[in-house]
Amino acid sequence: MASYRVPYAELQASATPAFPVGRVVRRPVLSLSLQNGAKRLSCRAIVDSGADHCVFPRSFLQPLGLDPLATPVDMSSGVGSSNVPMHFANVTLDLQGVLEFSIYAGFTPGLEQLGLGLLGQAGFFERFKITFDYSHKLYILETI
Asked: What's the CA gap between 68 and 65, in Å, rounded?
């Protein structure tokens, strides 16, 4: 069993009426690559225990050589709003050359504004024991 200690990413949130000077938020973000054959796309994704599947912005399809018209579609909820189309495809997830595995991932316009993917229960959590240690600003991934 391998163990990986990953620091939380510190992201600057924009100013809002509730936080007029903005704020720093900590999120469990991983840098990774998605691959489809010879096509490869570097990106980042949030480790999200509330996500059912691994999901990425729809704009990732084209750089991966995937045709949205040729992928099965499901309607999602919880990613931006309800009834958002999510295109599914088999891709390889590469965790910075340390670990590589295939996932059946969704691609949705609901994540375009965020620009990050979500690493969810099916495809990601099923491969790791994950410990979130917010007080120490890190999370631990252990292969199972």
From this structure: 10
CA separation for the pair 64, 38 (Å, rounded): 9
Q: Residue written as tokens 């007029």?
A: 20
Contact between 31 and 96 under an 8 Å Cβ cutoff? The reply is: yes
| DSSP E strands, the chain | 3-7, 9-13, 23-27, 29-36, 39-47, 55-57, 73-76, 84-95, 99-108, 117-119, 128-133, 138-143
Domain residue spans of the chain: 3-143
The CA-to-CA distance between both ends of the chain, in Å, stands at: 6
Q: Give the three-state DSSP class for 141.
A: strand
Q: What sign does the CA torsion over 103, 32, 3, 100 have? A: positive
Class of domain 3-143: mainly beta
- C-alpha–C-alpha distance, residues 139 and 47, integer Å: 9
What tens digit of pLDDT does each residue of 93-143 get? 999 888 999 999 999 998 998 899 999 999 999 999 999 999 999 999 999
Classify burial at 70, counting beta carbons within 10 Å of its beta carbon; exposed 0-12, middle 13-18, buried 19 or more: exposed
| Threshold 0.85, pTM exceeds | yes
